[in-house]
Amino acid sequence: LQWSSPPEAIERFKSQEIWFAPPQFYELCRLCNFSSLHELHKFSSDRALEGCERWMPVMLTASDGYVQLLPGDELYPEDPDYTGEKKIIMSTDKKVEDLIKEGSEFHRIVIKNMNNLAVYVNIQAKYKHRNPLMINSDCSDYSSRL
Asked: pTM for this one?
Protein backbone atom coordinates (compact mmCIF):
# COMPACT_ATOMS: atom_id res chain seq x y z
CA LEU A 1 0.00 0.00 0.00
CA GLN A 2 1.41 3.40 -0.98
CA TRP A 3 0.09 6.93 -0.40
CA SER A 4 -0.09 8.98 -3.59
CA SER A 5 -1.23 12.51 -4.21
CA PRO A 6 -3.87 12.83 -6.97
CA PRO A 7 -1.28 13.85 -9.60
CA GLU A 8 1.02 11.03 -8.49
CA ALA A 9 -1.84 8.52 -8.70
CA ILE A 10 -2.66 9.73 -12.21
CA GLU A 11 1.02 9.39 -13.18
CA ARG A 12 1.05 5.84 -11.78
CA PHE A 13 -2.13 5.12 -13.74
CA LYS A 14 -0.55 6.47 -16.94
CA SER A 15 2.49 4.25 -16.46
CA GLN A 16 0.14 1.29 -15.87
CA GLU A 17 1.58 0.75 -12.40
CA ILE A 18 -1.96 0.96 -10.99
CA TRP A 19 -5.43 0.97 -12.48
CA PHE A 20 -8.66 2.59 -11.41
CA ALA A 21 -12.09 2.82 -12.97
CA PRO A 22 -13.33 5.96 -14.77
CA PRO A 23 -15.29 7.30 -11.75
CA GLN A 24 -12.13 7.21 -9.62
CA PHE A 25 -10.15 8.92 -12.41
CA TYR A 26 -12.86 11.62 -12.48
CA GLU A 27 -12.61 12.16 -8.71
CA LEU A 28 -8.81 12.28 -8.77
CA CYS A 29 -9.09 14.95 -11.48
CA ARG A 30 -11.45 16.84 -9.18
CA LEU A 31 -8.99 16.56 -6.30
CA CYS A 32 -6.30 18.09 -8.52
CA ASN A 33 -8.11 21.43 -7.99
CA PHE A 34 -6.60 21.63 -4.53
CA SER A 35 -2.96 22.43 -3.84
CA SER A 36 -2.99 21.22 -0.23
CA LEU A 37 -4.94 19.09 2.18
CA HIS A 38 -5.76 22.26 4.13
CA GLU A 39 -7.32 23.80 1.00
CA LEU A 40 -9.38 20.66 0.36
CA HIS A 41 -10.56 20.57 3.99
CA LYS A 42 -11.58 24.24 3.89
CA PHE A 43 -13.47 23.74 0.64
CA SER A 44 -15.30 20.65 1.91
CA SER A 45 -16.21 22.36 5.18
CA ASP A 46 -17.48 25.47 3.38
CA ARG A 47 -19.74 23.54 1.00
CA ALA A 48 -20.81 20.71 3.34
CA LEU A 49 -24.39 21.94 3.68
CA GLU A 50 -24.89 22.82 0.00
CA GLY A 51 -26.16 19.39 -0.98
CA CYS A 52 -25.10 16.81 -3.49
CA GLU A 53 -26.44 15.17 -6.57
CA ARG A 54 -26.74 11.49 -7.41
CA TRP A 55 -26.17 10.56 -11.02
CA MET A 56 -25.29 7.67 -13.21
CA PRO A 57 -23.07 7.69 -16.29
CA VAL A 58 -24.61 6.61 -19.56
CA MET A 59 -22.28 4.79 -21.96
CA LEU A 60 -22.05 5.91 -25.58
CA THR A 61 -20.11 3.59 -27.88
CA ALA A 62 -18.17 5.46 -30.57
CA SER A 63 -16.26 3.91 -33.48
CA ASP A 64 -12.91 4.21 -31.66
CA GLY A 65 -13.79 4.19 -27.97
CA TYR A 66 -16.41 4.90 -25.36
CA VAL A 67 -17.81 8.01 -23.75
CA GLN A 68 -19.35 8.00 -20.29
CA LEU A 69 -21.92 10.78 -20.48
CA LEU A 70 -22.79 12.55 -17.25
CA PRO A 71 -25.72 14.87 -16.40
CA GLY A 72 -25.36 18.25 -18.08
CA ASP A 73 -23.61 16.86 -21.14
CA GLU A 74 -25.50 17.73 -24.31
CA LEU A 75 -25.65 14.04 -25.27
CA TYR A 76 -26.91 12.83 -21.88
CA PRO A 77 -30.38 11.33 -22.41
CA GLU A 78 -33.39 13.19 -21.07
CA ASP A 79 -34.73 9.95 -19.56
CA PRO A 80 -31.74 7.70 -18.72
CA ASP A 81 -32.24 3.98 -18.22
CA TYR A 82 -31.26 3.80 -14.54
CA THR A 83 -32.29 0.17 -14.09
CA GLY A 84 -31.10 -1.38 -17.35
CA GLU A 85 -34.57 -2.76 -18.00
CA LYS A 86 -35.06 -0.77 -21.22
CA LYS A 87 -31.90 -2.23 -22.77
CA ILE A 88 -31.10 1.09 -24.45
CA ILE A 89 -27.81 0.99 -26.34
CA MET A 90 -26.35 4.33 -27.35
CA SER A 91 -23.88 4.13 -30.22
CA THR A 92 -22.52 6.18 -33.08
CA ASP A 93 -20.30 5.62 -36.10
CA LYS A 94 -18.45 8.84 -35.24
CA LYS A 95 -15.01 8.94 -33.66
CA VAL A 96 -14.61 10.28 -30.14
CA GLU A 97 -12.58 13.23 -31.48
CA ASP A 98 -15.44 14.18 -33.82
CA LEU A 99 -17.94 14.08 -30.96
CA ILE A 100 -15.74 16.53 -29.08
CA LYS A 101 -15.21 18.83 -32.09
CA GLU A 102 -18.94 18.95 -32.79
CA GLY A 103 -20.04 19.45 -29.20
CA SER A 104 -20.35 22.48 -26.97
CA GLU A 105 -21.59 21.32 -23.53
CA PHE A 106 -19.41 18.62 -22.01
CA HIS A 107 -19.60 16.52 -18.89
CA ARG A 108 -18.01 13.26 -19.91
CA ILE A 109 -15.23 10.75 -19.50
CA VAL A 110 -13.68 9.55 -22.75
CA ILE A 111 -12.35 6.00 -22.70
CA LYS A 112 -9.98 5.04 -25.52
CA ASN A 113 -8.78 1.93 -23.65
CA MET A 114 -8.33 0.80 -20.06
CA ASN A 115 -5.34 3.11 -19.50
CA ASN A 116 -6.31 6.01 -21.74
CA LEU A 117 -9.00 8.15 -20.11
CA ALA A 118 -9.80 11.84 -20.46
CA VAL A 119 -12.22 14.08 -18.57
CA TYR A 120 -14.03 16.84 -20.48
CA VAL A 121 -16.15 19.28 -18.44
CA ASN A 122 -17.22 22.80 -19.33
CA ILE A 123 -20.57 23.04 -17.54
CA GLN A 124 -21.17 24.78 -14.22
CA ALA A 125 -20.91 22.38 -11.28
CA LYS A 126 -23.95 22.24 -9.00
CA TYR A 127 -24.05 22.88 -5.26
CA LYS A 128 -20.90 25.02 -5.31
CA HIS A 129 -18.85 21.96 -6.18
CA ARG A 130 -15.68 22.02 -8.24
CA ASN A 131 -15.47 20.46 -11.66
CA PRO A 132 -12.60 18.06 -12.22
CA LEU A 133 -9.61 19.40 -14.08
CA MET A 134 -9.80 18.29 -17.68
CA ILE A 135 -6.99 15.76 -17.69
CA ASN A 136 -6.09 13.29 -20.37
CA SER A 137 -4.16 10.29 -19.09
CA ASP A 138 -1.87 10.74 -22.12
CA CYS A 139 -0.40 14.04 -20.86
CA SER A 140 0.45 15.91 -17.65
CA ASP A 141 -1.20 19.27 -17.07
CA TYR A 142 -2.15 19.57 -13.41
CA SER A 143 -0.66 21.33 -10.42
CA SER A 144 -2.11 19.79 -7.25
CA ARG A 145 0.28 19.21 -4.37
CA LEU A 146 -2.05 17.05 -2.24
From this structure: 0.85
Which among 123, 109, 126, 133 is positioned nearest to 52, based on CA atoms?
A: 126
Return the closest-CA partner of residue 13 out of 137, 118, 142, 143: 137
Ordered mean pLDDT values, 10 residues apiece, the chain (146 residues): 88 91 94 93 91 87 95 93 81 94 94 90 91 74 38
Integer CA distances (angstroms), 102 to 1, 2, 20, 96, 97, in order = 42, 41, 29, 10, 9
Residues 126/16, Cβ–Cβ less than 8 Å: no
